[in-house]
Amino acid sequence: MISSTRQIASAAFGASQRRWIASTSRSSRAMPFIPDHTPASSSSFSMKNEPMRLLMLAKPGSGKGTLSGRLTSKYNVQFVSTGDMLREQIKAGTEVGKQAEGIVSSGGLVPDELMIKLLGTSLESSSMKGKSWILDGFPRTLVQGERLDRYLASTGQPLGLIVHLDVPDEIIMGRISDRWIHPSSGRIYNNSYNRPKVEGLDDVTGEPLVRRADDNPEIFARRLKSFYAQTAPLLEYYQSTAPSNLVTLSGKTSDEIWPQLESLVRSRFSSLKSKTETKRVVPEAVIRRAEREISRDHRDFLSSLSPIIPTAY
């Protein structure tokens, strides 16, 4: 299976990977089609005392969902999925949802302006103010990236980190045949490295797992080809506009990449706390007031007993 998928992948986008683009002013050597971004050294950035605003870019099947899930499970981070928001808005029958529903039902693509408006309803809500978040599903193209930057700048919450996940194509192509999903939650399992506790069933609900319709070699090869065509210019854009914020993390599995990702976000954002670190702390003044009240109540209680306590005591 893996050998056949590699042949299909090579035929579909092998030519794209062999393309080279001219070197930039930042380097005298030619860069590959997907620019070779290296993690910024610790001296090239300062820790940010502000919420984490993270964009993760990755080829389909790279483990972006798994890694995002680990961040949101361990840390106080919101997962902002434009796809989920779109479905919620349509279901709720909001103004944005009604506009999007007409477009989606006719098979069209939701315009960038509407997607930005959709993001605004979430990122500018009171529940998201001052919160750390991961953005998923948008942007996918250079034009979308430029529009998103303008919008975020206008609201005073620019991206603080762009992570590019670099997983070899042959690993991804070999992985898709083992992938299963839980439709209602989006949880992803893989028979190779993230098996469900019970074969074929979701760990949380016990409901059946299914395969995605596009998890076959031919369709997946086309998705990878589309990623190279659309996302390479987007990566180049972030390399030119925010070089210290763009970091590539490489590995073959999510377990290899996770320690790199966790170390990166912890070193960049001092405000990022794990859920165990943010348990409510009772202010010192409240403790002292409670102690005084207990002491007073204790004295009152002893006074009430004085008539019946023998003098010898």
Structure, described:
The chain has 313 residues and is an alpha/beta fold. It has ten helices and nine strands. It has helices spanning 2-18, 64-74, 82-92, 95-105, 112-123, 142-154, 169-175, 217-241, 254-268, 284-305; strands at 20-21, 31-32, 53-58, 77-81, 132-136, 161-166, 179-181, 188-190, 246-250. The strands form three sheets. Strands 4-5-3-6-9 form a five-stranded parallel beta sheet, sandwiched between helices. The model is unreliable at 1-37 and 39-44 (pLDDT under 50).
List keywords for this structure.
313 residues, two-stranded antiparallel ribbon, single chain, five-stranded parallel β-sheet, 46% helix, globular, alpha/beta
Radius of gyration: 26 Å
- List the strand order in the largest sheet: 4-5-3-6-9
Shape: globular
Structural class, from helix and strand content? alpha/beta
The low-pLDDT segments are: 1-37, 39-44
Q: Report helical residue fraction.
A: 40-55%
Number of strands: 9
- Reading the helices and strands in chain order gives HEEEHEHHHEHEHEEHEHH
- What about the largest sheet? 5 strands, parallel
What is the CA-CA span between the terminal residues? 89 Å
Count of helical regions: 10
Report mean pLDDT, rounded to a whole number. Answer: 78
β-strand percent reads: 5-15%
